[in-house]
Design brief:
The protein is mostly helical and 712 residues long. It is built from 38 helices and two strands. It has helices at 2-15, 17-28, 32-48, 53-63, 66-73, 83-98, 101-104, 107-110, 113-119, 129-146, 151-157, 160-170, 175-214, 219-226, 238-252, 258-275, 284-306, 314-331, 341-363, 373-386, 394-413, 415-429, 443-454, 458-466, 469-483, 495-514, 516-521, 523-539, 546-562, 573-587, 607-610, 613-630, 637-643, 646-656, 664-680, 682-690, 693-699, 703-710, and strands at 590-593, 602-605.
Length: 712
């Protein structure tokens, strides 16, 4: 083995005899002065030419870490020798060692990170060659550490991010290297960088944004590529948004080649992803800029997807999808929209053509491509369009529905891959950042709003049923419901989970009304009914989840009417618990409220219901109607309602408020429930009479109730 090594050693010696002579002097040094002199010579020889890994290791074996450590920390330099020269020598040796990946992760290198970081911002003569050399070597050390698997974490913990920011903002020697290293650290560990150095990173963003706004040369296109990495995960400072928008407006308003335009579109998409439309100013200039953005995005999408034989630049097209989504949001916004009505009409027409291109592309996607992130991004933009518009492109959408169901089913069955796809889409389209709430991790959630609209229409609904969408939706609902069940921390769940559950309920409500036979014959709806019954009692007690409880209660009541013969609904503990919770939801919506200057109270919404009544009232009225329909079908329900004291308390409430304060539709809803309870059970009638039911019925002109209570 020794004989194998000797030729290589002799070869290294013959290549650099000067270095070998200096290493010999270093090994034979008898004191600090001789060792210092030898180190200077070794460092000079190393800088004079390239060395291989074996030679670098031999230098390390000869030098070690002890003396470089002393050089970096010493405060007493020999007479006539500036102290930074000693530090420069120590850094030069570390830079040499760090060229070896194993040594770059050595604890003796990692614990120097705080010291090295201070060198980046140390004051001194900017023309001093030794100081410049030390700065170059410092960047070489830090860059080498950053290139190791755990290196970025060590650098962030050692204060390097703040030091790099200050070095860049100071625009001293090596500031361009500081920016390059910052870019690498943000790409590798964005969240940790912002957590450790947010004020400094924001200062860099302000500087870059200002430079971008002022740039008149090709540097503005380079800044387009850099800036997405420096947008914070929280709020972007308003002054930065102004500068970025102004710079983008100048770029995109000019005639550009694709290599100049594409980075600008990607930066705009990143801003749309982070800030929605808040970064675009109100008024004529803002509306024109937004219209331009969406126009350019749609043109790019059509050029990429309609032309055959050309390679699709997926990152650019996905960024254009984000801009189209911004256009969809603004076109459907009723209040404080940036766009005027004629602009909206024009953009909808342009986006319709681009969506047609997306549908054409998806029609050609084979099974082998279904797990590609660009397909996921294309389904996402189609889902955003269908959430707002299903009347146009109806034929094309119906033709694509079988693919969409299969695609959603594939990703649902491989949920982990779906989440990974979401991350890949974010990386592809925007930047190496964690996807935000607008990038949900499963394809089915993207399609739910559109399917909710489509299940109202006969043709699309029949296709969805034929392709097995209802069964898939039931499984999806049950799986998502598990995330909200006891044992899971619902406070950390994204809002999209609860919104997805509500949208599923809306789809099921559509199917209950339009396809009742499906509810009766498909076993998946029996499982769904069981889940609704067991879940509602706990749900109605939870703060802040009233809207979801309303959806569950109303859906369950409507399904119970169709599944009334099911054994599960024949007075079982689960069914009694469900109807008790439904009564709680329906009965707590209104209260008597005193009014100043009046002896009589008025009927008013309960505090919990008041803020969301606009979203809740349709469900509440539908729930009252469904409960009324369940009473004659379930003989045990009227006695249960009587035990809950709902009919008595309802009559008491009506008797305590002014009849003029109760709207006719409320009177009709209350009378419907009271009449069915009275008809179904003698004890209910007696209890209502004792609660002045006949008198109350007369006051409110509830003729049906008055007649029912007058009978034996």
């Amino acid at each position: 083995m020794a004989s194998d090594c000797e030729p290589a050693l002799n070869q290294a010696e013959s290549r650099n005899p000067t270095l070998e002579r200096y290493l010999g002097a270093l090994r034979e040094a008898k004191n600090d002065s001789e060792q210092f002199a030898a180190l200077l010579l070794v460092t000079k020889a190393v800088k004079a030419g390239d060395i291989d890994a074996k030679t670098r290791r031999r230098i390390f074996d000869a030098v070690g870490f002890t003396f470089p450590n002393r050089l970096l920390t010493t405060k007493e330099a020999p007479d006539g020798c500036p102290d930074h020269v000693l530090r420069a020598l120590g850094v030069a040796l570390l830079a040499c060692f760090c060229s070896d990946p194993e040594l770059a992760t050595h604890p003796q290198v990692l614990n120097k990170i705080p010291i090295l970081s201070t060198f980046l911002t140390a004051r001194g003569d900017p023309d001093d060659a030794a100081r410049r050399s030390m700065i170059d070597d410092t960047y070489q050390c830090l860059t080498a550490v950053a290139g190791t698997p755990r290196g970025p974490r060590h650098l962030i913990a050692g204060g390097t991010v703040s030091a790099l920011c200050q070095a860049y903002l100071g625009h001293g020697y090596g500031f361009d290297q500081a920016l390059a290293l910052l870019v690498g650290l943000l790409a590798a560990a964005e969240t940790q960088c912002w957590k450790e150095a947010e004020p400094d990173l924001l200062a860099v963003l302000r500087g870059l944004s200002e430079d971008f706004q002022k740039a008149e040369d090709a540097s503005k296109f380079e800044l387009c590529q850099l800036l997405p990495l420096f947008l914070p995960p929280t709020t972007v400072p308003p002054e930065c948004l102004r500068d970025l928008q102004a710079g983008l407006a100048r770029i995109l308003g000019s005639k550009l080649s694709s290599w100049q335009r594409n980075p600008a579109l990607k930066l705009a998409a990143r801003l749309a992803h982070a800030c929605g439309s808040d970064w675009i100013p109100a008024g004529s200039s803002g509306s024109k800029f937004l219209a331009l953005l969406v126009n350019l995005a749609c043109v790019e999408v059509r050029l990429a997807l309609e032309e055959t034989g050309t390679e699709v630049k997926e990152d650019v097209v996905t960024a254009c999808y984000a801009l189209m989504e911004l256009g969809i949001q603004e076109c459907t916004r009723c209040e404080q929209s940036l766009l005027k009505e004629p602009q909206k009409v024009q953009l909808v027409s342009i986006m319709k053509e681009a969506i047609g291109a997306v549908i054409l592309y998806l029609q050609q996607v084979g099974p082998e491509k279904q797990k590609e992130p660009f397909v996921f991004a294309s389904v996402r933009i189609l889902g955003a369009w269908l959430a707002e518009e299903t009347s146009s492109l109806r034929k094309e959408v119906c033709q694509l529905l079988p693919f969409l169901v299969r695609y959603a089913k594939t990703l649902y069955e491989e949920a982990e891959e779906a989440n990974d796809l979401s991350q890949q889409v974010a990386n592809l389209a925007i930047s190496p950042t964690t996807p935000g709430p607008t990038w949900p991790g499963d394809a089915l959630r993207l399609l739910l709003p559109g399917w909710c609209h489509l299940t109202v229409e006969d043709g699309p609904r029949e296709i969805l049923i034929k392709e097995g969408a209802p069964s898939l939706l039931c499984k999806y609902f049950l799986q998502q419901w598990e995330l909200t069940s006891p044992g899971h921390d619902t406070s950390v769940l994204p809002d999209s989970v609860e919104i997805g559950l509500q949208t599923c309920c809306h789809i099921f409500l559509n199917l209950v009304v339009t396809a009742p036979g499906l509810i009766k014959r498909d076993a998946c709806f029996t499982s769904l009914m069981n889940t609704l019954m067991t879940s509602l009692p706990a749900l109605v007690q939870q703060q802040g989840r009233l809207l979801l409880a309303a959806n569950v209660a109303t859906l369950g009541l409507l399904m119970a009417r169709l599944l009334s013969t099911s054994p599960a609904l024949q007075g079982t503990p689960a069914s009694r618990g469900f109807f008790g919770a439904a009564i709680l939801f329906l009965s707590q919506s209104h209260v008597a409220r005193a009014t100043p200057g009046s002896d009589q109270a008025v009927l008013a919404l309960s505090p919990d219901y008041e803020g969301i009544w606009a979203d809740l009232q349709e469900l509440w009225f539908l729930g009252m109607q469904a409960f009324t329909g369940c009473v004659p079908l379930l003989p045990w329900l009227a006695p249960a309602a009587l035990r809950s004291r709902w009919p008595q308390e309802l009559l008491q409430l009506l008797g305590s408020v002014s009849p003029n304060s109760v709207k006719p539709e409320m009177v009709a809803a209350y009378q419907g429930v009271l009449v069915e309870l009275a008809r179904a059970n003698r004890l209910c009638r007696e209890a209502m009479r004792l609660q002045a039911g006949e008198e109350t019925a007369s006051h409110y002109r509830m003729a049906a109730l008055e007649q029912c209570l007058s009978e034996p």
